[in-house]
Amino acid sequence: MKDRVTTDIGATGPHPEWADIDWKRARRRGKNLRQRIYRATENGQWKKVRSLMKLMLRSHSTLLVAVRHVTQENRGKETPGMDGQVALTPAQRMHLVQEMSDHTRWKAQPARRVSIPKAPGKLRPLGIPTMQNRVAQASVKNALEPSWEARFEASS
Fold this sequence. Notes:
Layout lengths: L22 H20 L3 H13 L1 H14 L16 H13 L9 E6 L5 E6 L2 H22 L4
Antiparallel strand pairs: 1-2
Helix pairs in contact: 1-2, 1-3, 1-5, 2-5, 3-4, 3-5
């Protein structure tokens, strides 16, 4: 059997280059975990839901997909946060993945506050989170969404 320690849940081994990542497999692993969370929520297996959410938060595949979502697919990918960082090159994205693997997701950093024009002469404050906070939000959203979707499906 193939050793999956370096490529599976919570991988800490050598990272491949950004272009070498198997995105189809990473998305499939995330989709599988989301489906399992959804089914466990429907069946009322709350301990299993909690353990699957923890598993998904530690998942290296979920982290890769979250970094890709924040740095390549979002409209605000070029907007720096309080730290002034953006991750637009593949090397910067891999560095962000390595930083986020050691990052504690529940410790948020301050958001950058800017004022945007609203009505004639009025300004509205806007908070722009750092790139690490955006990745953390995306991965936590990915873990929480299936459970809440299952709970509110009947009323949506």
